[in-house]
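RESIDUES AND SHAPES:
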Amino acid sequence: MREALIPKIYSKFWIKTLLHRLTPGGFGQMRKLRTQTDPNYLHERDKHPIRQKHHGGGGWKDADGDGLQQRDYADYEEYLTHQKLKLDEMLKMKGGFSNEDVFNYRVRFYLRFRHLPARLNPNARVLCMGARQGTEVEVLRDLGFPHATGIDLNPGPNNPFVKPGDFMKLDYPDSSLDLLYTNCIDHAFDLDAFFAEHARVMKPDGYVLYDLAANMEEGGGAFEAVAWKRTEVIFEKLLRRFKKLVHVEREEQWMWVLLQGK
């Protein structure tokens, strides 16, 4: 019965994906975000003072013995302010992602999530963290997970997919979620605390799905909070925290990892 529904669900996904790609001015929520563009905004003139300290090549501490490099934040509030600025700048400069960007993101998320219907009940509680505009949440709902939701420090205006939330301090009970997903490991304030918090809210037999940037050896960009010289460092932390490595796959720019149990 469940297998019979899958083709219909996937058709819904592809129809909406084409609408996101072909609709002039954007489709759905993305169209609304285009109105946030500020033609008077000049980044170098108007950027927040914290961006003077934190940018691609500046605001970093020296790497530790494991090759991890972290932002030199004065405190947690500075970290929060810096991370919230990313969407603000994007909206002012270009109103969010272009049609082509959204199309490419939807296809990438489809490739990540298409195997989940075989592992998760349709009523599964799925949380996407650092979801920003919510493309991954929309894709999960298109693939048959209506209870998927997202959190972000800055979800932008009137976001139907993402609510305000901090993936370092999740507002969920212990052992309450079936799956947690993020592609923002490199935005974590503290990696050990980050993984511990996710394990706390994950059900004992639940899953975590992480996308890792595959080029972190080159250093972090303007908004990353942590960078690493060796991807093995991240795997060591994951395998100490979660019970089973289910799948790992590397692409040109990303590596995705599915783990189960705690």
Notes: The longest strand covers residues 202-213. DSSP finds nine helices and nine strands in the chain. The first helix runs from residue 2 to 22. The CA atoms of residues 240 and 262 lie 9 Å apart.
